[in-house]
Amino acid sequence: MRNLNRSLIAVLSGAAMLLASPYSFADYGCTGTVGYLGISSDGRVTVALTNVTPVHLICSIEQQGTFTMSVPSCKATYAAFLAARLAGKTMVVYYHETGLTCATLPSWGAVPSVYFVEGPN
Questions:
Q1: What is the distance between the alpha carbons of residues 114 and 103, in angstroms, rounded to a whole number?
Q2: What is the 3-state secondary structure (H, E, C) of 38-60?
Q3: Beta strands 114-118 and 90-95: pairing type?
Q4: Which one, of 41, 20, 30, 51, lies nearest residue 114 by Cα?
């Protein structure tokens, strides 16, 4: 019976980890409406959340390069940002980036560590 209890606890603990939100592992998240959304001729996606972040690069729809986000995920993310901008909804962008905050992201610089994007909300 004791082994059954331990097994049950192990299974429940594993299930709880699976249910933990993927963005809970990010260093910080920035929330706001989409103030700027652009895509360059080489496929780099740039965004800014109104009064929250400067314009910065988050991924590429052409090649992953040093970005954390894959090309298919970047395409879906661009579509989500576009939908949010058209609807006036908010987005949340989560980063694995130490030493920075939403306000200190490098203006027009690449922030390759976008971990998770939530929205439109």
A1: 15
A2: EECCCCEEEEEECCCCCCEEEEE
A3: antiparallel
A4: 30
Q: What is the pLDDT of residues 8-19, one digit of tens each?
A: 333 333 333 333
Instruction: Supply the DSSP string of 78-104, one letter for each residue.
Output: HHHHHHHHHHT-EEEEEE--TT--TTT
Over residues 84-99, the pLDDT tens digits come to 999 999 999 999 866 7
Longest dimension (CA), the chain: 64
Which residue in this structure is represented by tokens 């109104």?
50
d(CA 27, CA 97): 6
The pTM (predicted TM-score) of the whole model is 0.76
Nearest to 72 by CA among 86, 59, 81, 58: 59
